[in-house]
Inverse folding.
């Protein structure tokens, strides 16, 4: 996951099947910010990629989340 990939429209999903938690991070070009959605709620927005990445890393560690793989 990179800032460029997000700004080019790619979203990244993450989950933990054991606990039933899931979410995604995305770039919102309308509001010019990054947003993290977790369990159907927007829990974080930021204008900078670094702040969003830091928050996502903590969230993934705390909840033992993993990025979902996209299969063709």
């Amino acid at each position: 996951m990179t800032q460029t990939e997000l700004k080019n429209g790619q979203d990244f999903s993450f989950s933990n099947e054991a606990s039933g938690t899931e979410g995604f991070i995305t770039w919102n070009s309308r509001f010019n910010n990054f947003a993290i959605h977790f369990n159907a709620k927007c829990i974080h927005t930021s204008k900078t990629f670094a702040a969003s990445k830091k928050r996502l890393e903590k969230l993934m560690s705390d909840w033992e989340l993993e990025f979902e793989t996209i299969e063709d």
In short: The longest strand covers residues 21-28. The CA atoms of residues 35 and 45 lie 4 Å apart. The chain is about 30% helix and 40% strand. The beta strands are 12-16, 21-28, 33-38, 41-46, 66-67.
